[in-house]
Specification:
alpha+beta; Aminopeptidase; seven-stranded mixed sheet; 26% helix; 25% strand; binds coenzyme A
């Protein structure tokens, strides 16, 4: 597996190990109090750059997780544990010099029979800067990192009623592979979505 632009990614441990230390099979979503601010997005688009998260970003990531995923379960500690595990790649979006969102993935190790597979564990954007293209930027960077890490598939779970997330993922070429009932700790159903990375980047 190549190191790629995000160095730690080449050393990621097995997703299964991460899963054992994490919550029941759950990736998260948004709370009603954390809805996107409607803004005239494209005309006021903030300057954004994406970088790998650093230890000092831990508080931002866990607090945003707590707000953004509240209605699905308690994710603050879970995301913090994943962040600390060293087994996940976390990318941070910085808008006008301030953290604005993050995306976190883990990747399985390749076997002789199977190439590695990347799972998007969480993606969230601060409610004040949603709908300005940050989520899409994060997702595209995650995909690029996954490709560099040798993955040929990226997968994720999202709640059936999370229309914002579904629209983002479908717009970026993910397709629904299955339904998992009561996937989240609070009982919501989830869609399993996947995207092949062998095709040319979107
Ligand atoms: C899902 C989320 C990450 C999207 O981030 P974002 O920065 O607002 O998304 P973008 O501005 O990049 O939007 C990209 C596309 O997503 C879709 N989208 C985003 N917000 C939407 C909304 N409120 N309603 C409908 N579609 C929406 C649109 O297709 C949009 O494309 P467009 O602006 O060209 O129409 C954000 O809403 C969020 O943090 N939600 C809470 C956490 C969450 O649910 N995460 C997903 C868990 S799997």
């Amino acid at each position: 597996m190549s190191g790629g632009r995000y160095g730690k990614y080449g050393e990621i441990q097995r997703l299964q190990r991460l899963r054992r230390s994490g919550p029941p099979r759950s990736g998260p979503e948004s709370s009603p109090s954390d809805r996107p601010a409607r803004r005239n997005a494209r005309s006021t688009a903030p300057r954004v750059h994406i970088r790998e998260a650093r230890p000092l970003d831990r508080t931002f990531v866990s607090r945003l997780s707590g707000r953004a995923f509240r209605r699905f379960g308690s994710y603050t500690g879970v995301i913090r544990d994943w962040f600390d595990s060293g087994a996940a790649l976390t990318l941070l979006a910085v808008s006008e010099g301030r953290p604005a969102g993050f995306a976190m993935t883990a990747q399985t190790l390749p076997t002789p029979a199977e190439p590695p597979e990347t799972e998007l564990l969480a993606i969230a954007v601060d409610s004040g800067v949603r709908r300005s293209g940050i989520g899409r930027r994060l997702l595209r960077e995650i995909e690029a990192a996954a490709r560099e890490g040798g993955a040929d598939v990226i997968r994720l779970h999202t709640a059936t009623d999370n229309l914002a997330a579904r629209s983002l993922f479908e717009g970026e070429g993910f397709r629904v592979l299955g339904l998992q009932r009561r996937f989240y700790p609070c009982g919501q159903d989830a869609l399993l979505m996947i995207k092949g990375l062998a095709d040319k980047p979107s």
